[in-house]
Design brief:
Distance between the termini: 32 Å
CATH class: Alpha Beta
Strand order of the largest sheet: 2-1-15-3-4-5
Shape: globular
Largest sheet: 6 strands, mixed
Order of helices and strands: EHHEEEHEEEHEEEHEHEEHEHE
Helix content: 25-40%
Number of domains: 1
Number of strands: 15
CATH architecture: 5-stranded Propeller
CATH superfamily: L-arginine/glycine Amidinotransferase, Chain A
Number of helices: 8
Structural class: alpha/beta
Strand content: 15-25%
């Protein structure tokens, strides 16, 4: 792979929530295979905090602006804070979860958004949306990539475009969250084969250089990454050496994190990281 791409730099804000009360309490195995695959496993709370803290500490080491949403008892998956909200400039789009057990997280994060002076946008009850897990902004292409089909309604496209003034590219997904299917880094979009529709792939070709990864790599969280400047933050797995080779050939450094405790419910680096997109 001999491609090279310009690396854009800008100040960005990542928002995290410590896994103080994180545990396996739900069963969303109707569309999330991890609940079935790890059935019966319980969270090692001490290990989970240590794993989370390594991500947090690495972000700080790279001088990323990191903010914290305080954890809350009885919200066991709040540590995946981006699922509850999408932040764009001064606007906060509050999620309507497919699984209503998690809606109390969105209500809590909505209060946080009010306290932090965001213009809060509540969605109609008939529209589902799961925040930054399903909507990702590309700074280089100046578009929002939005999933639909599994946990987010197609109609969310019009709402995002109306309130942000940004073009939204709808992507039909075959997994529970967009950030399990694709990873966008500057001009490049990685996707796992079979996780998004062929028509969506054809549309994305008009905007990005696409790199296809094997379907099973999605299960190993190869797409569930974040990046800052020339560093990619990824998940330790049995495919990490092959993944690192790809990233390095494209000019990126990569840091891997053991996030096995969060894998129990389908969470990785990106799941733990909410970005406040500002332009």
């Amino acid at each position: 792979m001999s491609l090279s791409f310009k690396i854009f730099t800008l100040k960005r804000t990542f928002i995290l929530c410590p896994p103080t009360y994180y545990k396996v309490e739900y069963d969303f195995s109707d569309d999330n295979e991890y609940y079935e695959f790890f059935r019966g496993r319980q969270v090692d709370s001490k290990k989970a905090y240590e794993q989370w803290n390594k991500v947090y500490s690495s972000y700080l080491k790279h001088n990323i602006d990191v903010k914290i949403v305080p954890p809350e008892e009885n919200l066991p998956e709040l540590t995946f804070v981006g699922d509850s909200i999408f932040l764009f400039n001064d606007k906060a789009f509050i999620s309507n979860f497919k699984h209503k057990e998690r809606q109390k997280e969105a209500q809590y994060v909505e209060e946080w958004a009010y306290k932090n002076n965001f213009e809060v946008i509540e969605l109609p009850e008939n529209i589902t949306f799961e925040g930054n897990a399903e909507a990702i902004y590309s700074y280089t292409k100046k578009v929002i990539l939005m999933a639909y089909g599994k946990r987010t309604s197609y109609e969310m496209k019009e709402i995002l475009e109306e309130f942000t003034g940004i073009e939204v590219i709808p992507i039909e997904t075959h997994k529970f969250h967009l950030d399990m299917c694709i990873f966008v880094v500057n001009d490049i979009l990685f996707y796992a084969k079979g996780t998004i529709s062929n028509s969506s792939i054809e549309t994305l070709k008009e905007y990005f250089h696409l790199i296809e990864l094997p379907n099973e790599w999605s299960f190993h969280f190869a797409l569930n990454n974040t990046y800052y400047e020339n560093v990619i933050f990824s998940n330790s797995s049995k495919v990490q050496d092959e993944l690192a080779e790809i990233f390095l050939k494209l000019g990126y450094n990569v840091e891997f994190f053991d996030l096995s405790e969060f894998h129990l419910v389908g969470g990785g680096v990106k799941c733990l990281t909410l970005e406040h997109y500002k332009i």
